[in-house]
Amino acid sequence: MVQVELLKSKIHRVTVTESRLDYIGSITIDEDLLDAAGIFVGERVYIVNNNNGERFDTYTIAGPRGSGVICLNGAAARKVQKGDIVIIMAYAYVTPDEVAGFKPKVIFPDTATNLLPK
Question: Is 89 within 8 Å of 107 (Cβ atoms)?
Fold first, then answer.
């Protein structure tokens, strides 16, 4: 069966709060943001760094709710600096019949705090 890969979830323009090279790997994201965007813990995500053009992928770890944490861990820490603006995206495979009704979840947290608007 033919499937197409479409954008499923997007956390648009959040600020990196920390990067920790000495870690196994992944991105830690405030669990409120994961839930709002429909991204699962352990899900593969693609990250675009608006400051330096880096594009890479990793998997998610839940950070404390309401913390605004966006932390790149392990090798990904080399691709960002604290204060960089990133976009986090997840994709899904759908059949051509599902494309017409498919809508991604896109959230726009406050870039200064990484928290969702009230």
Answer: no
With beta carbons less than 8 A apart as the criterion, state whether 88 and 54 touch.
no
Active-site position among 9, 26, 67, 91: 26
Is residue 9 annotated as part of the catalytic site, yes or no? no
The answer as to CATH 3.60.15.10 being correct for domain 4-95 is no
- The verdict on whether 26 is a catalytic residue reads yes
Domain boundaries, the chain: 4-95
Q: Flag whether the pTM goes above 0.90.
A: yes
Q: Tell me if 24 sits within 8 A of 73, measured CB to CB.
A: yes
Q: Give residue for tokens 């600096």.
A: 81
Would you write out the chain's pLDDT as a tens digit for each of its 118 residues?
Answer: 899 999 999 999 999 999 999 988 799 999 999 999 999 999 999 999 999 999 999 999 999 999 999 999 999 999 999 999 999 999 999 999 999 999 999 999 999 999 999 8
